[in-house]
Structures are given as structure tokens and as C-alpha cells.
Write a structure and sequence with these properties.
The complex is a heterodimer of chains A (330) and B (324). Chain A is an all-alpha fold and 330 residues long. Helices cover 72% and strands 0% of the residues of chain A. Chain A has 15 helices and no strands. Chain A is flat, with a radius of gyration of 27 Å. Chain A starts with 21 loop residues before the first helix and ends with a helix. Chain B is mainly α. Helices cover 70% and strands 0% of the residues of chain B. Chain B contains 17 helices and no strands. Chain B is globular. Chain B starts with 5 loop residues before the first helix and ends in an 11-residue tail after the last helix. Classes of the chains: A mainly alpha (330), B mainly alpha (324). Chains A and B meet through helix 1, helix 3, helix 4, helix 5 and helix 8 of A and helix 1, helix 2, helix 5, helix 6 and helix 7 of B.
Chain lengths: 330, 324
């Protein structure tokens, strides 16, 4: 790689500059190889702390899960376990809850994802169309619910869902629901409640991300559109939207992957509704139950490998197809 | 050093954009403009009103809440005395004199801080090496990092539990902190940082000056990595503090070693609102005001790091500056 531009630092084998004597060429080639070796050693030294953590936090657990999934669960009769082949996967697939949990996820996704995507794109476009203090203030306000992540968001929703003191108690009364148990466990409510919770906590950060994409649109493009007589709607629909498509795809896939691993919300909604929900609403809850209720570690490992493969597939789509990580990697 | 100054250019551009769009927008008091502003204010109200009511709840009294008093969102019933009482209940939770709440907050601080420090120590050199050094498998490492970054971290929790359990360390805090140190998003942030702020020539020049590869990292790259350090620390700390599933799987077995995220769940489970039988056996009463206060208090560290990192966060957004 020649000096000069801030070119991406790959392309390892580069041709020798022409027009040099053979002797100097050989000498400099050896020198450069030595230099390159130093660079390689330096790189791996600098990477080593991360590599150790990658092994502990990523690689080893995956291999260990594969190993565990191929074991037999320890039982009182056979406490030592042993090789069990694919029997743990059979256990998981034939569990009556397995397909149910994916069905539940699907019913949440089908409610939540369209609302989420519409909200993200719509609000990001609105913020982008409002330059100055007003737009910035709104973007900040939209971001606030996102700060209540995880369990905090759940407690907030317990407050909203409990007709005894909810600020939207009127809504629950109209629907004839007078306890939190009724609100959460009445048939058909759960996907909407979960969609609301996920929307509330996720929308703000994604508006910021998509807004970042919109801010990357060169001024000339927007100027050209307005000179051509495009109004705000036309600009948003025909100019901005096509340009930020990679961000929209990225947001959709990231949220899809997030949907597959739902755990906290259904688990705790079950707790606040006196266990009126199924104990295992989602695949992650099922995996958790295999591990911590049945102590069937092989089945728990098999379940998490199944989820891993699904989210890995989505992850590969994001990295290769979203177009966002292409620039530095091509 | 002039390289670092590259940033303000972007801000200037945004300002230019605003100047450009400002007059155009304000000249037209069109229906579209009114509709846009109205929609945005309406959405903001939907987001903010529940949060105001929830924060007010932390300052209210359970009897008034139960009686439906307190006016709009209960704002009429807020008082400091209520907070003092609610705190005595929250703090009284636990065996003997209580005090579990603060212990859980301490545990959260421990794992979140150690985890964030490990994440920074690993991410900054790794990001630099990936951005500015040439070696085999560079793209492989980058690819694995991206993949790990976009996948929800919960999918590995049960395998991680099996790993930690195999070495007999489940229920202990340090494995949680170490696992939290694995933060691929931080590596990606650092990688982008060095790609955009540190030109290759700078590395070449330092080599010609006779610096070793490690020397270049410490003497040239580290001094210009403040922005990356701040961002990685912030995102790692927030992710660690709000992490629920990992502590649940690894720490549930030892009550004194829980983090606050799973501790809050235990408080909910001990509330007479949802579990009268358990609550009857306790000498503290955790109704909605107490739960709201506990939640509110558990978020204060997040607020502090947010304020600390704010000026770094405002400088341009990195692609996908989010990890679910």
C-alpha cells in the first residue's frame, strides 16, 4: 500500500515499484517482509486482550454448547450422562411448547415490526424536516423512553397496565378490564402489550440512527430537489426515502433479531399477572426453563443453538446485505 | 494534531443545512407545516406523559394512590416525606435490617464498571489494529466482530451459563464482569474512530521515526482516542447496567450477589400488588410508589454517565450507534 490516500488498510500483497535494480529490489523486499512481520506481531499483540475476551465470551461458549447439546441429560438412574447424539434436539423439537413459542414470537412481530418501522421512518423524516431547535428538542424527547431500558421500562409498564392507578385506566375500563391480570392475560392482548413495550423503549435510539443517515444526505441533493419544484412530501418520498433504505433495512433486521430473543417482558408480565400467562411464552424462556426448571442442560444448549442459528442468519443478512458495512469492507 | 479538528467541519455542515432550510420552512405557514409540528408534539406527549406520571409516582403516598387522589397524573400528591417513607421500605427489604437494595446497586456498579474498563482496554487497541495495521485474518476478525455486534447478546447467555457452571463459578460476580468485557460494538466504534481520525500516513511517519508498532499505538494513537474511549465507556456501561438476562442466569442462585436489574424483579415479586402471600410475610410494604422510587433510584447512575458523556455523544453519529 502506497502512502498517500486514507485507503483501507488491506491488500496485503502489493507489487514492487518498477524501475529498480534487481539487487536493491531483493534487499528491499527482504526489508519490507521484516517490517511487515513486525507489523503483524504488533497487530496481534494489540488484539490479544480482545481475542481473549472473544474466546471467553463468544467462541468457547458456542463450542461448549455444541458439546453439551450432544450429551445425555443426567438422570437419577444415569447420573453420569454421556454421549447422547441428537437426542437433546429431539427433546426440544418434540416439546409441545417449541412451535408454540415461535408462534407467539411471530404474533408479536407481526404487530410490532410494521408499527415500529413506520414509527422510526416517519418520525426520523419529521425530525429531519424540522431543522433547528424544535427538531432537536423533539428528537431528544423521543429518545427519553429509550433510557428506561429493560427492567425499568417494565416497571413503567406495570404502572400503565394496572387499572388500579394507571393514567390510562379509562382505556382499560372501556375494555372491561379491571385488574392487571385481566389486562395482561385476556386473549389477544399480549402481542399488543409487548409491541407497545418494545416500541416505547426502542423507537428513540432508532430515530437517532436513521436521522444520522438522513443527515448524511448531501445538501446539493436536497437543493436540487427543491429547485426542481419538489415539495416536502415529494422530497421525503422520492429523494430521502430511497437514500436511507440501507438504514431502514438495518433497523428492520436488527429489530427482527431482537424480537426472537424476547425474554424479560413476557417473563415478568407473567409474574405481575399471578402466573396467568403461559410459563414459557417465548423460545428464550423455554431454553431458560430447560436449564433452570428441568436441569436438562443438553436440551437448554440445543435450544440456544437453534436460536443462535436463527439470529446468526439474520446477522449475516445485516452484515452482507444491509449495505451499511460495505464501504469499509469492499 | 490538526487531524482531530476534522470534526467541526461536520457540525458546520449541519449548521449550513439549517440555515438553508430555515428560511424556506418559515416562509410557508402551510397546512403541511402545522400538521408536521402538531404530529411531532402529539407523539412527544405520548412519550413523555407516562414518564412524568411514573416519576411522580415515586413521590406519592400509597393510600392516596389507592384512593385515586392526587389530581392529574398524581402531581398534586407529591411530597418529600413520601420519598423518605418509601425509601425506608425499599431499603428495609432483605433479611434482618434489610439493605439488599444498596448491596444490589453496589454489585451492579462492580460488574458494570469492571466490564466497561475491560471493554475499553480491549476495544481501543483492537480497533486501532483493525483499522490501521495489515495482517492475515484482519477481515475475518472484523467480520466476526460485526456479526457478534449485530446479534442480540441474550442468545449466548445459556451457553455462557454452562461455561461458567463448568468451572464452578456460577453465583460469583467476577465472571459476569469478564463476560461483559466482551463488547464487540466497542471494537467497532474504536475501528471507525481510527479509520476516520487517524490517517495511514501518520502511522507510516511514526514508523520512519523509528517507533515500534506498540509504541505507535501508545504514543500516537492513544492520545487522539479520547472520543472513542468516552463512547465505548458510555455504551458499555449502559449495556452492562441494564443487562438483565446474563445476571439472571449467572447470579440468581446467590441473593446477596444479584445486580439491581434482577433485584428490581425480586422487589416486584415481593409486592402485595402482585403476590399477596409472599408480601404478607414481609415487614416492608412495596406498593407502586416504592417500586417506582426503586426504579428511579436504579437509573441515577445511567443519568450520571449520560451527562458525563453527553458532549461526546453529540459529535456526529456513528453508523448503527445502537446495540439492542
Amino acid at each position: 500500500m502506497s502512502q498517500g490516500t486514507i485507503a483501507p488498510p488491506h491488500a496485503e500483497a502489493q507489487p514492487e515499484p518498477p524501475g529498480r535494480g534487481l539487487r536493491t529490489k531483493r534487499q528491499s523486499a527482504a526489508g519490507r517482509r521484516k517490517l511487515h512481520q513486525r507489523e503483524v506481531r504488533g497487530a496481534w499483540t494489540l488484539l490479544s486482550p480482545y481475542m481473549v475476551l472473544l474466546l471467553i465470551g463468544g467462541i468457547i461458549p458456542i463450542f461448549y454448547a455444541v458439546y453439551t447439546a450432544l450429551q445425555r441429560p443426567a438422570t437419577p438412574v444415569q447420573p453420569e450422562g454421556g454421549f447422547g447424539g441428537i437426542s437433546s434436539f429431539v427433546t426440544v423439537f418434540s416439546d409441545f411448547r417449541f412451535w408454540q413459542t415461535f408462534g407467539n414470537i411471530f404474533s408479536v412481530l407481526i404487530v410490532w415490526l410494521p408499527i415500529m418501522m413506520l414509527g422510526i421512518v416517519g418520525l426520523a423524516l419529521l425530525v429531519h424536516a424540522s431543522p433547528g431547535r424544535f427538531g432537536n428538542t423533539m428528537r431528544f424527547l423521543y429518545y427519553i423512553p429509550g433510557a428506561l431500558a429493560g427492567i425499568a421500562n417494565l416497571v413503567l409498564w406495570v404502572y400503565l397496565l394496572n387499572p388500579a392507578q394507571s393514567p390510562i385506566a379509562g382505556l382499560w375500563n372501556v375494555m372491561g378490564l379491571d385488574t392487571i391480570k385481566a389486562v395482561v392475560a385476556t386473549d389477544g392482548n399480549l402481542p399488543f402489550i409487548l409491541a407497545g413495550m418494545l416500541f416505547f423503549q426502542g423507537i428513540g435510539t432508532w430515530i437517532v440512527v436513521v436521522n444520522g443517515g438522513l443527515n448524511g444526505i448531501p445538501d446539493e441533493v436536497l437543493e436540487a430537489a427543491s429547485i426542481d419544484g419538489a415539495n416536502a412530501w415529494h422530497t421525503a418520498w422520492h429523494v430521502k426515502l430511497p437514500i436511507i433504505r440501507p438504514w431502514i433495512g438495518y433497523a428492520a433486521l436488527m429489530n427482527l433479531a431482537y424480537g426472537f430473543q424476547l425474554f424479560l417482558e413476557p417473563q415478568l408480565l407473567d409474574q405481575v399477572s399471578s402466573n396467568a400467562l403461559p410459563d414459557q411464552t417465548t423460545p428464550t424462556q423455554l431454553g431458560y426453563a430447560f436449564a433452570f426448571s428441568n436441569y436438562n442442560f443438553p436440551a437448554a444448549a440445543a435450544m440456544s443453538l437453534i436460536l443462535l442459528v436463527i439470529t446468526l442468519g439474520i446477522g449475516l443478512l445485516i452484515v452482507f446485505r444491509s449495505g451499511l458495512f460495505g464501504e469499509e469492507e469492499k | 494534531m490538526s487531524l482531530v479538528k476534522a470534526k467541526p467541519q461536520k457540525r458546520a455542515k449541519t449548521a449550513h443545512q439549517e440555515a438553508l432550510a430555515g428560511p424556506v420552512g418559515s416562509n410557508q405557514m402551510s397546512v403541511g407545516r402545522v400538521a408536521r409540528v402538531a404530529t411531532m408534539l402529539f407523539v412527544a406527549a405520548i412519550f413523555i406523559v407516562p414518564i412524568i406520571g411514573f416519576v411522580a409516582m415515586a413521590f406519592r403516598d400509597q393510600d392516596e394512590v389507592a384512593a385515586g387522589e392526587g389530581g392529574v397524573l398524581g402531581l398534586g400528591g407529591v411530597s418529600w416525606d413520601n420519598v423518605v417513607y418509601s425509601w425506608s421500605q425499599v431499603n428495609g427489604f432483605g433479611p434482618g435490617e434489610g439493605g439488599l437494595f444498596l448491596q444490589w446497586v453496589g454489585n451492579s456498579l462492580f460488574v458494570a464498571v469492571i466490564g466497561a474498563i475491560l471493554a475499553v482496554v480491549a476495544a481501543i487497541p483492537a480497533g486501532y489494529a483493525l483499522a490501521r495495521l495489515r495482517f492475515r485474518f484482519r477481515r475475518t476478525v472484523l467480520f466476526v466482530t460485526l456479526l457478534a455486534m449485530v446479534m442480540p447478546n441474550t442468545v449466548l447467555v445459556i451457553p455462557l451459563f454452562l461455561e461458567v457452571n463448568a468451572i464452578g463459578a456460577s453465583g460469583e460476580l467476577w465472571p459476569v464482569a469478564v463476560i461483559m468485557g466482551f463488547f464487540p460494538f466497542g471494537v467497532y466504534l474504536a475501528y471507525i474512530h481510527f479509520m476516520t481520525t487517524m490517517p495511514q500516513e501518520l502511522v507510516e511517519a511514526a514508523r520512519i521515526d523509528g517507533l515500534s508498532e506498540i509504541g505507535i499505538f501508545f504514543q500516537v494513537a492513544t492520545p487522539i482516542s479520547k472520543q472513542a474511549v468516552a463512547l465505548v465507556t458510555f455504551f458499555a456501561f449502559v449495556a452492562n447496567w441494564t443487562n438483565y438476562f446474563l445476571p439472571l442466569a449467572l447470579l440468581s442462585s446467590v441473593q446477596g450477589n444479584k445486580t439491581i436489574s434482577i433485584g428490581l424483579q425480586e422487589l416486584i415479586g415481593a409486592s402485595p400488588l402482585f403476590n399477596p402471600t409472599v408480601a404478607a410475610g414481609l415487614n416492608v410494604k412495596l406498593y407502586m410508589p416504592q417500586l417506582a422510587l426503586a426504579t428511579f433510584l436504579s437509573m441515577i447512575p445511567l443519568l450520571i454517565v449520560f451527562i458525563g458523556a453527553q458532549r461526546f455523544l453529540m459529535r456526529g453519529q456513528t453508523v448503527g450507534a445502537v446495540k439492542g
